[in-house]
Amino acid sequence: MYRISQLAKKFGLSRSTLLYYDQEGLLSPSGRSDAGYRLYSEGDLERLAAIVSFRKAGLSVEETRAVLESEEGEASVLRKRLAAIGAEIRALQAQQHLLARMLRVQSEGGLPESVDKETWVAMLRAAGMDDQAMATWHAEFERRAPQAHHSFLLSLGISEQEAQAIRQWSAAAAAGLSAPLR
User: Fold this and answer.
1) Which CATH number fits domain 2-69: 3.40.1190.20, 1.10.1660.10, 3.50.50.60, 3.40.190.10?
2) In this structure, are strands 2-3 and 38-40 parallel, antiparallel, or unpaired?
3) How many CB atoms sit inside 10 A of residue 48's CB?
4) What is the pLDDT of residues 81-96, one digit of tens each?
5) CA distance 150 to 153
6) What are the residue boundaries of the HTH merR-type domain, all occurrences included (predicted)?
C-alpha cells in the first residue's frame, strides 16, 4: 500500500492533485491507515497511471472520467480528442501560413492596391480558414491592434460603416460574446 505522498512522488504529481482526483471521483484511496492516512493499492497505482496518461494526452477530467467508467466509451472519447486536436492543428497551420503571407506582403511595402475584400476572403479560404478561424483571426486582430485592424479593413475597400460593424463584432467575439458575422 502507498501513502498519498509516496504515490504523488512516484508520478511527479502534487498531493493536492491527488486530493483533487479523489474529490472528482477519479481516484479514491482503497483504505486508511490506523492514523487516518489515505492508502492506495497496486490497483489504484495502475488507475493513476491511466489517469496520468489520459491527462497528458489532453483529455479533460470529465473525458478521463468517461473513459475510466466505460470500456466502450474509451475509443470514442479518444477519437473525439484526436479529431479535436487535428482541427486545432489545421486551424493553427492556416493562421501560421496567413501570418507568414502577411509578413511577406508587409515587407514588400504593404498590400497591393488590387487586394479587395473578396480577394482577401478568397485568400483566407485558400489558406484553409473556415468561418470560425476567420472569426478568431478578426477577434485577435481587434484585440491586439485595433487601429491596425481598422486601417486594414479600410485598405480592402470596405466602407467606414462596415469596418466599424466588423470591429464591433470582433471586439465582442474577443470578449467571448460573439454573434454571427453578417
Assistant:
1) 1.10.1660.10
2) antiparallel
3) 22
4) 888 888 888 888 888 8
5) 5
6) 1-70
